[in-house]
Amino acid sequence: MNLLLLTPAPEGSLSGNRATADRWAGLLRDAGHQVVVGTDYVPQDANKADLLIALRPHEAVSDLRRAYALAETPERQRALGEAVLQSGLVHSSQGTSVDAWRLGKPLLEEAIRLLPGDPRAPLALGEQARAHREFDTALRGFRETIRLDPRQTSPYTSFFTLCSRAGRWDVAREALEGWTKAHPEVVQAHVTLDVGSASGWANDAG
Length: 206
Known about the structure:
Layout: E1 2-6, H1 16-30, E2 34-38, H2 43-48, E3 51-54, H3 57-70, H4 74-92, H5 98-114, H6 120-131, H7 135-148, H8 154-165, H9 169-182, H10 187-199
Parallel strand pairs: 1-2, 1-3
Helix pairs in contact: 3-4, 4-5, 5-6, 6-7, 6-8, 7-8, 8-9, 9-10
């Protein structure tokens, strides 16, 4: 394969990022691949590559944005979406600080727009919003994930956990009902729903 490996560290740099890029390039070449190591996204180089690997993708986002602005192709939109998604995860997963979420949330929102139909982006938004205790955003992320891929199990469990811990049993019931419909083989969801209905918890929120 022809591989393009991007790093923000220039050739000759002693930074750990450049050392990682050079080490990866050597291993990939030993495996029989053709590898070009660069610091900037150059459309001509990218078009020749079968795969682009971006180290520190949050630092490569600006280059990808410029390339996408020059020619809005599906391939470049996908590449930008992947970088934005990873950047959003890198920023928002840095603990529970307000600054981390302030930087990460808009990137995850943008990734949803750039990667339409990909359930990873809304799931990432839901999980990170749950970690940062932003209920409405987390709920929106989980609902969109389920809409795109109702066969996944994790969005239902995260959805239910989010709502039950917030005391939102009315919405928690929605998660369980969707779970049992999409996964009739899952006994746990049926038991939880039956017990909750029998005890009347679903009506407590009213």
